[in-house]
């Protein structure tokens, strides 16, 4: 499983000088790659949520209280949507550049 469209393929050659490995060893390598990809995806999602929360909270909530008023709620919703769109554009551009190399 790759992360955001990159991370290598499971069937790709590691190079001409790479030693042959057994099917069992390849399965272990694939499991490790999958685990790493999942951990990266979790870290990526956490960073997204943290960045979104920090940015939108700073922008929209001037005087924290027990709940958001209607203006703050709309601001947070709009900010979150805009932040997600921007994050997705940057992510797609990053993946495209990685895949070109």
Automatic annotation (TrEMBL):
Mitochondrial intermembrane chaperone that participates in the import and insertion of some multi-pass transmembrane proteins into the mitochondrial inner membrane. Also required for the transfer of beta-barrel precursors from the TOM complex to the sorting and assembly machinery (SAM complex) of the outer membrane. Acts as a chaperone-like protein that protects the hydrophobic precursors from aggregation and guide them through the mitochondrial intermembrane space. The keyword Isomerase does not apply. One of its GO terms (cellular component) is mitochondrial intermembrane space chaperone complex. Heterohexamer. GO terms for molecular function: metal ion binding; protein transporter activity. One of its GO terms (biological process) is protein insertion into mitochondrial inner membrane. Transmembrane segments: none annotated. It comes from Pichia membranifaciens NRRL Y-2026. The twin CX3C motif contains 4 conserved Cys residues that form 2 disulfide bonds in the mitochondrial intermembrane space. Pfam families: zf-Tim10_DDP (PF02953). It is a peripheral membrane protein. Residues 36-94 form the Tim10-like domain. Belongs to the small Tim family. It is found in: Mitochondrion inner membrane. Keywords: Chaperone, Disulfide bond, Membrane, Metal-binding, Mitochondrion, Mitochondrion inner membrane, Protein transport, Translocation, Transport, Zinc. This is Mitochondrial import inner membrane translocase subunit. InterPro entries: Tim10-like (IPR004217), Tim10-like_dom_sf (IPR035427).
